[in-house]
Amino acid sequence: MELKKLDNEAPFPFGTLTVRDMTPDTFTQLSMGVVEVPIGGEHPPFAEERKEKIYVGLRGEVLFTCQEETALVRRGDVLVFSPGEQYSYHNGGYEAAELLVLQRPNRDRSAG
Predict the structure, then answer these.
(1) Mind listing the pLDDT tens digit for each residue in 66-88?
(2) Handedness of CA 84, 81, 63, 27 (dihedral sign)
(3) What CATH number corresponds to the domain at position 38?
């Protein structure tokens, strides 16, 4: 068993976002983190070629765009992207937001 506490994980900047990696050392098939999305914060268009990504709304509202579709993710909502889907997101609301992000790890970039 391994317990990790969000407050003990050092945040690191990622563009206009802040990320805390919550992946326990014992995980081999999954990585997870908490992404803080400030008002006006955004993630530019991106496609992860080899990973499925799952976002869970923890706080606030974040608008995701994937091709011609949009989804407003709020607390308790779950949004899944398949490998190769290009998406972006933006917090145009009135409060900071947080997302839990889950994905398969990509430890070897040369692996297909």
Answers:
(1) 989 999 999 999 999 988 899 99
(2) negative
(3) 2.60.120.10
